What does this fold into?
Amino acid sequence: MSSLIRSIFALTLLALSAAAPAFARTVTDSAGRTVTLPDRIARVMAAGPPASAVVYCLLPETMVGWQRAPRKEEIPYLLPSTHNLPELGRLTGRGDTANVEVVLKANPDLIVDFGSVRPTFISLAEATQQRTGIPYVLVDGRFEATPASLRLLGSILGVPERGDTLAKYAEDLFQRIGALAATVPEEKRPGVYLARGAKGLETGLRGSINTEIIERAGGRNVAVSDDRRQGIANVSPEQILLWAPEVIVTWERNFFDAVTKSPDVTWESVPAVRNKRVYLAPTAPFGWIDGPPSVNRLIGLAWLAHILHGERFPFDIRQETRKFYKLFYQVDLTDADLETLIAWADGQPPTTLRQR
It folds into this structure.
């Protein structure tokens, strides 16, 4: 080999090594895809709201932005370093607003989606990765997969110990609630209606991801479709009256105020309203029941299990909320922020009103 050829060969190898990520590694995501990652991940873009929540919980300093900028009332429950991150929109789900240009401008080392791993989402991941050259992993967002998914994503992000810590919290909670639910026959489980929308006439049908928390907490979702449909549905007040839920859970303040203070003749006949078993779920910085369906539902699961089963599942709402927010969201709640957060969640007026 001539000296000229050797020089060209050496320069080519040098160029290739410079272009390749240092110490690149491969992982297998929840969809069974093999994805090559840089050894160090410093910038992460979440494909949708569920991914935003879980990336925030695991490694908030890597976030390049939010799908939706935090609202004023959510700010006290988030780390200051994340308050002013840009709003990027979402790559996946209903109302997707982000595109390749947004991704390239954000310049992440990794894109994470947390949710379904069906073929539709695999195709989106592959297409986005191909067009941008940025690794894209799919992580199973099913509730029962939470411990395994936290460990997988913790490993991907380089924080396996934190992933394991959060996973153990989920495993312990699932075990305790599962043991309780197993002792309650289906026909004896409290009937629960999840009221969505300002009038409470939108709900999640039994079997949908939006209401799986009800069954896992040992309740019985009363919203069953005759044709076994799942997902979100609009219903009538008369249908709710026929279902006769014993408990109503909502995160809609307007509906909660209307149905607890001056319900119309139909709503006041619903057992949950008549017996004052309507509960307002906290929503900051992420919803306790849904919005998004991610790891934020763990605190909501414990809360709902207590609502449905009382002292059979002990739950001190103030103590447990402080514990969860410190562990998952890494914030210490002030007394005022805590009371604002859980106002009416225990079926009682906020402390400030009780003291008057």
Notes: The chain has two domains: 9-176, 186-354. The CA atoms of residues 169 and 350 lie 28 Å apart. The two ends are 92 Å apart (CA to CA).
